[in-house]
Specification:
The complex is a heterodimer.
Chain A lengths: L2 H16 L5 H8 L3 H13 L3 E4 L3 E4 L1 H24 L5 H8 L5 H7 L13 E2 L4 E2 L14
Antiparallel strand pairs in A: 1-2, 3-4
Helix pairs in contact in A: 1-2, 1-4, 2-3, 4-5, 4-6
Chain B lengths: L12 H28 L6 H27 L7 H15 L4 H27 L9 H28 L1
Helix pairs in contact in B: 1-2, 1-3, 1-4, 2-5, 4-5
The chains are: A mainly alpha, B mainly alpha.
Amino acid sequence: MNTADQYLKTIYVVQQQEDGPASTGSIADALDVSPASANEMIGKLEARGLAEHEKYKGVRLTDDGIVRARDALQTYCIIERFLANVLGVEEFRAEARELEAVIDDTVADRLDTIIDRQPECPDCFDPETDACACLEVATAPVEPEQ
Amino acid sequence: MVSVSVSQRITSDDQLARLLQIGIVLEEVVEARAHHHYQSLDAELDAEIEALLAGAAEESAEHRERLESLIEGLGVDSVPFDEIESLVDARYGRTQPDDFDGVLYDQLCNEETAYKFYDDLIGAIEASDAEFSVDRETLLETLETIREEEAEGVSEVTEVMERR
């Protein structure tokens, strides 16, 4: 996933969390970059017609931006699911964040052929837990009913 | 939301090992799917596609071995093929192509995806100044050879598709 897509995904999630335009500060915090870097990339996204930036209000994705952001979020969800369910990685969130930049959508699509993703993806993504809400992670075995 | 890094570099042995494991899984997917195509269409399979799929499965197995020896050098376990095969089995009914064109197209996607994966991986390693536990030159040479073979695979499948 390239840097622009990582930004689009983050803006999409922040917009949902803030229930309105995403502030540059929140975007920069979420991506762990400086506000200046965030501003620079936001300018590029604006120039490509993927986002609109209104002074003092924040950034809002355009329809095209939303489509790309949702694709990027799906790719992220595939990486998380793949790490958790196929490779059994406990720290799947941290690793997904490390790996997302190196995993392209076409690669994620192929990995998707062996994971069981839900049709509602990426709406099932929960920003609070930074994971898909229907992700089956290893839990303690359920006691059989007597 | 937890903060993320937008770095596209590989910074540790663990991260490199994980990416190599993903490469192994991609190869295992190719191998398992090629094997399924081979079996599901065997009554009517034509010799050219049969040879192509057999060659692809063999090449994937070789790539897998080369990746395995790299991750062994990093002290990490490989990914068991049986598990991947059963996952492919479980999902296969939903994704199975139903004719030769579908089989060839699926194979083309496999080769293109693998090429893209190795190309990005090589780029990320080259952009990194991290010291890995495996020799950097051997690592890059191995991955470049595999990438080259994937590129040849793409041309080979495209050629068959264009001719048919």
